[in-house]
Write a structure and sequence with these properties.
single chain; alpha+beta; 245 residues; three-stranded antiparallel sheet; 13% strand
Length: 245
């Protein structure tokens, strides 16, 4: 084996929806234009006071370990920061909103991606994957499976930040996953190994943003990093119990 990537290893390119182009900007070789990219705008609410923070950090963690999720950015708003999840474009194929009844079909077509996503969900405490996943299940060679909406993970898994941190320290949390008992164990173990190789410093850099975000203050961010480092170290047993037990 040469160690080089093969065509089958390549990740699909995720494109986003361009909703309009207004005018040209400058005279550069790339012919830049001011345009609008469609997005779903989210904010913290009474039932999820850490949603913006959790969405943002989950996206950083996903990128760190190679999980395909919809890109998102923080956006300024008169009432405070919001989170903008970019709307995925469907060009030449249709993405299905994946619910529990699609689990077998998704695992059959996307065994690696399903295993990776399930293990990642276990790590970040995401029990809300059903309905927050889109995939091409049509008769097409365009393979794309993309995770959405992580506002119910990390510091949003409890009624309060303290309750969320307590849950993240439990080996039996989250309870249930749509891909449980359907996955190839070897593929899941490979993702466990990948996450366990993430350094303490990398987890801390992803979680501790340097300033308060919404209601999530710096000590809360540091506590989340500690909880995720603990879950990383305990991940083999947690995955065994929750996805294969």
């Amino acid at each position: 084996m040469s160690g080089r990537s093969t065509v089958s290893d390549a990740k699909p390119l995720v494109t986003y929806t361009l909703s309009g182009v207004r005018k040209a900007v400058g005279h550069g070789a790339t012919e830049p234009e001011i345009g609008d990219v469609a997005a779903i705008i989210k904010q913290d609410g009474r039932e999820s006071r850490a949603q913006i923070y959790s969405e943002y950090v989950a996206g950083k963690l996903a990128s760190m370990v190679g999980i395909t999720v919809a890109a998102g950015v923080l956006v300024a708003h008169a009432a405070g920061l919001r989170y903008a999840s970019l709307k995925v474009a469907e060009v030449g194929f249709t993405l299905t909103d994946i619910e529990a009844e699609h689990a077998d079909a998704v695992v059959a077509r996307y065994p690696v991606e399903a295993a990776n996503l399930a293990v990642f969900d276990v790590w970040i405490g995401n029990s809300d994957r059903s309905g927050n996943l889109r995939a091409n299940l049509q008769e097409s060679t365009d393979n794309l499976m993309i995770g959405l909406d992580h506002g119910g993970s990390l510091l949003s898994v409890g009624d309060s930040i303290d309750a969320a941190l307590q849950r993240l320290r439990r080996e039996d949390f989250p309870r249930g996953h749509m891909f449980a008992k359907r996955l190839d164990r070897r593929l899941a173990d490979a993702m466990v190994t990948r996450i366990m190789r993430v350094s303490d410093e990398a987890v801390q850099d992803a979680c501790v943003l340097g300033e308060t975000l919404g209601s999530v203050i710096l000590p809360d961010q540091a506590d989340l990093a500690d909880a995720l480092i603990w879950r990383r170290d305990e991940l083999p047993g947690i995955v065994d119990r929750l996805l294969f037990g």
